[in-house]
Amino acid sequence: TGVLTAVLFAYAAFSGYQWWRNSQVAEASKLYETMVTAITKGDKDQTLRAANDLQKDFSRTPYAVMSSLVAARIASDAGDSAKAIDYLRWAAKNASDNSYLALAKLRLVSQLIEQGGDQNFAEADQILKEKPIPGFEALWLERRGDWYLIQKKNAEAKASYQEAWKKLDQAKEFPEEARRLLKVKIDAVGGVVQ
User: Fold this and answer.
1) Helices (H) and strands (E) in the chain, counts
2) pLDDT in tens, 142-152
3) Closest alpha carbon to 145 in 132, 133, 162, 131
4) d(Cα 171, Cα 7) in Å, to the nearest integer?
């Protein structure tokens, strides 16, 4: 009887957790839809408010990370790089999906490089020293090249860009504009595309 009771209790707890998790995802989905509507209306304040609410109330759902990536882009486009960096740091810390994690880290590195300053460069360097997320190796190497270039380490930038080109050449799913941009960077540092 004791074993049966324990099994039933465990099943009830598991079922309760699943119900709670599904209800959290459903609520987060509604709030994300509100955010999308605000974006289409051009309402920056409501968009960022929805992203903040998703971070605060539904941080364990994918919607929170997705909204943070979108909010970072909106903040950056509005000239608020500090807010964009905050959103990207949050997404990089809380993403459970590797694709979102890679996007958050790569965009964060780009924002940090763009901001400049020793502290930002050091944070970007720290991120780029991490092992690249599978499937994003070429982009990781490209950002590393960007970091070298801003540090005026042209030889290292060239090597990193050329290694990124090799990886990109092996991954046929990348869009053509990504290849063109990388080729421009390689040409700028005097590299040769093979």
Assistant:
1) 9, 0
2) 999 999 999 89
3) 162
4) 48
